[in-house]
Amino acid sequence: ETPLIEVKGLKKSFSVKKGFLGTTKHLRAVDGISFAIRKGETFSLVGESGCGKSTTGRLVTRLLEPNDGEVWFKGQNISHISDNQMRPLRKDMQMVFQDPYASLNPRMKVKDLVAEPLLIHTKLSTKERDKLACELLETVGLSSFHAERFAHEFSGGQRQRIGIARALSVRPSLIVADEPVSALDVSIQSQVLNLLQDLQEEYGLTYLFISHDLSVVEHISDRIGVMYLGSLVETADKDTLYDRPLHPYTQALLSSVPVPDPSLKKERIILKGDLPSPVDPPTGCRFHTRCPSCMGICKQHEPVFREVEPGHEVACHLFDEEMLKLER
Ligand code: SF4
Ligand code: MG
């Protein structure tokens, strides 16, 4: 079966001015990543802020155009298609953002916020849009009584429900959710995550879920990709990643995730040093400056992202026999 989304060797860099003389440098935000998302699946991208997750979300939905590599949506290469060609696809891929405060216009009534994508993408009448907006509010656990009110009258969790209703209004196949619960209290987070899961089942949605927090994505994900400095370092199905993480960076991230039974808690791995700048990433393995298992070869050779068991990919020399021979 053709994946809903397929990303191959995707790259995006931005020009940045550095220092007093303002020399232009390239910030390699996304530096050659590949993954696929099957229909109905939740694929999560996880990593520290600045690792390229959000840029990836914007490349997948073609809000950004890649410098290199390809994005395929429903078997069509959309990497460089025009805005005109993109327009009918926009409806089919919607985004939910972290901060509903910032992404919702405070001067618009809730019914108009929810129905705005319908106004853009359909020819429905105002009356039809209002009716759908009320239904959508019920679908996301709010009430049609809320339709005439303004976004600022709602709590953070309610606003995120409004954002989700809005994304859902045009019945997309794909929703890219960029840190959708990061601004919310933990108790509210699980309510919103449960809602997203219910909606996925009801509408057959596919999610690209972006988060800096591995504990947030545990319950919602089918598969997870871990990113570091613009690269994918490990991809696996959820259970494999939590039970048998291979990449030292994944192991470090997981060691700080709270577990319900403290006797099962593994020792916390504290990474040395700061996150290097994506403008000047380290040579060889870009994680080598912080890796507890760093070897001599790691400073010179960039590890290849490869499958080490079915469905489990990792970019680390520890799992590459040929490279280990070089080290010995
Ligand atoms: Fe660590 Fe080397 Fe593996 Fe990079 S390649 S993660 S530095 S062991
Ligand atoms: Mg981000």
TrEMBL record:
The keyword Heme does not apply. InterPro entries: AAA+_ATPase, ABC_transp_ATP-bind, ABC_transporter-like_ATP-bd, ABC_transporter-like_CS, Oligopep_ABC_C, P-loop_NTPase. Residues 5-254 form the ABC transporter domain. Signal peptide: none annotated. It comes from the Bacteria. Keywords: ATP-binding, Nucleotide-binding, Transport. The keyword Acetylation does not apply. GO terms for molecular function: ATP binding; ATP hydrolysis activity. GO terms for biological process: peptide transport; transmembrane transport. It holds the Pfam family ABC_tran. Belongs to the ABC transporter superfamily. This is Peptide/nickel transport system ATP-binding protein/oligopeptide transport system ATP-binding protein. It comes from Paenibacillus endophyticus.
